[in-house]
Amino acid sequence: MHSKKVLASVICSLLMSSNAVLAKDIKQGGTLVVPIINTGFVENFNPYTSNGLFEGVMYEPLMVFNNMTGKTEYRLAKSAEYSTDLKTITVKLRDGLEWSDGKPLTAKDVAFSFLMTKDAPAFDGKAIWTSGNLASVTATDATTVVFKLNTADSTFIWGLPAYHILPEHIWSKVAVKDLPTFTNPNPVGSGPMTVVSYLKPQQMELCRNKNYYLPNRPYIDCITYRSYNDNSQVQPALMKGEIDWGSNFIADVENTFVAADPANNHFWYPANDAIHLYVNTKAAPFDNLDVRKALSMALDRQEIVDVAAYGYPTANFNAGGIAELYGPYISKAVTAKYKDLTTYAPEKAKQLLDSAGYKDTDGDGFREMAGKNIEFDINVVNGWTDWIQVVQMVTEYYEEVGIKANIKTVDWSVYDSALKDGEYKMSINWSKVATNPIEAYQTYFLTSQIGKSWHAGHGVHSPKIDALINSFGLTNNLEKQQAILDELQEFTAEKMPFIPLFSNATWFQYSTAKLVGWPTKENPYVQPVWYDGGKRNLIINNLHLK
Question: How confident is the model at residue 374 (pLDDT cuts 50, 70, 90)?
Fold first, then answer.
């Protein structure tokens, strides 16, 4: 049986993105400075427990599925092929790969890295083992890794970049029970920046890997991370030219950032993830579908976008679970059928709440049942100023229909665990940004994602929907795949496990005062997302001195 490249129906790309420039035109050197919103840096270089700080920087992915271009950007791998029955994936590595300590990086390291996540389920982020579909991972020679699947799955390959390729000669010495707490001192990696120049609580610098596999890359010498408490601290730092790359909401960016240095200060906000209000359907009053519908109809989405988010996102009137990022996949029929659910209609919302038995019987302006008010918190991360403004407006709209909702600002760790464990009443959160929207539905509804995905704690799951989602990978026929997506959109609109708000903007501010090579609207070689390790990797490899 001959193999053929399907790679999830995307086109294989050249070595680098289309914006690569000739080496003779490149001026090397310089330091990229980026802001990180956290409480400070600690000596933890474990890529699975360091909040994504080192993905695509210290650790190179096998490949990057570039949703902006539709191409597959090969990195450590030089090819990946599916068998015709979609049950075997053969990955070929580049020749002559090395770790930053000079030791060979081979297929054995890759196989070890995936097998390690079987022993450490906390690292199995895409559930390749816990779902039961991955039968084996084998290094058949120094540059070949073979993944055997129990059942056909044309989407399986999309999850491979989520697993970090780690040096077996170091990580094999760590006991399985110690993997989740291993801090990986003296890290050895394969990415463009592997040397820890210094680490302080508020600042860390990583410098170039002399054994990096791409000749003369990266062009820049180092990346400096600076710690900030929240968006409000990032904005003045950008305005002063203290940082080069911003990935957070900036209020009135044209006047507060661009105007400070129009020649060098720029922003580009392409479409990003769908932002929803996730509700816990296992708890009253959200176990009542009419209440969920009413809470959706009580919101003026366009006003929220215009006032709380300065008009940068796009209001989402699609109840099917996806938004502008996945525009070509949105079912027009589903959007039209459930249009009422996303149309601002406070009087209809009040009628639904009345029919659900929630009425204001004591005259205090808020609805109750059996003498108990409907009152709940909406979780949002402390310091996320744009979303705090959004949630503030949401509570005001809910008050207009007699619902008492409160903003609850929490630390990331609390927010993260509450979403994964389903221990929340309502929480604002995003949706999956991926090669295809089926991955968003996987994180929404697959029962295997409960406790792992931020998006699966709402309580709406079923074996039937698991089967429908999993059937997507049994084919690579585009019409059949779209029919599955249409059915999932219908299910989402019917059940309403979350309330759509808007299609978020990709927050991307950048300075050309010292570095150029950024993706732009005119040269959109990658979605400019710092928080995605693969996309970050492509940008780092294209930046160079002005």
Answer: confident
Look up residue 339 and give its amino acid. K
- Give me the pLDDT at residue 7, please: 38
The answer to whether 31 touches 527, Cβ cutoff 8 Å, is no
On the question of pLDDT at 143 being above 80, the answer is: yes
Task: Give the C-alpha separation, 330 to 149, whole Å.
Answer: 30
Calculate the average pLDDT of the chain: 92
Task: Quote the CA–CA distance of 415 and 423 in Å, as a whole number.
Answer: 10
Spatial distance between the Cα atoms of 249 and 23, rounded to a whole number of angstroms: 34
Distances (CA, A) of 17 to 14, 97, 158, 524, 525: 7, 20, 19, 10, 6
Q: Is the confidence at residue 15, as pLDDT, over 50? A: no
Tokens of residue 379, six digits: 């979780």
Strand 426-429, strand 375-381: pairing: parallel
Task: Determine the Cα–Cα distance for residues 38 and 49; give it in Å rounded to an integer.
Answer: 14
Q: With 0-12 CB in 10 A as exposed, 13-18 as middle and 19+ as buried, what is 25?
A: exposed
Q: How far apart are CA 143 and CA 94, in angstroms?
A: 7
Pairing of strands 404-410, 375-381: parallel
Burial class of residue 492 in the structure, from the number of CB atoms within 10 Å of its CB (0-12 exposed, 13-18 middle, 19+ buried): buried
Which pair of structure tokens corresponds to residue 241?
């030219």
pLDDT tens-digit series, residues 384-410: 888 999 999 999 999 999 999 999 999
Amino acid identity, position 324: E
Cα angle 365, 369, 374; round to 5: 60
Number of H helices, E strands in the chain: 15, 25
Instruction: Convert the pLDDT of each residue in 213-222 to its tens digit.
Output: 999 999 999 9
Q: How far apart are CA 33 and CA 545, in angstroms?
A: 13
Q: Distance (Å, rounded) from C-alpha 434 to C-alpha 464? A: 23
Q: State the Cα–Cα distance between residues 19 and 464, nearest whole angstrom.
A: 44
pLDDT, tens digit, 9 for 90 and up, residues 212-261:
999 999 999 999 999 998 878 888 999 899 999 999 888 889 998 999 99
Instruction: Give the C-alpha separation, 192 to 61, whole Å.
Output: 11
CA dist 405 and 399 (Å) reads 7
Task: Determine the Cα–Cα distance for residues 166 and 155; give it in Å rounded to an integer.
Answer: 23
Predicted pLDDT of residue 332: 95
Alpha carbon distance 174, 504 (integer Å): 41
Sheet strands (E) in 116-202: 134-141, 144-149, 193-200
| DSSP H/E element including 444 | helix 438-445
> Cα 448 to chain center, whole Å?
18
φ, ψ of residue 518 in degrees (nearest 5):
-70, 150
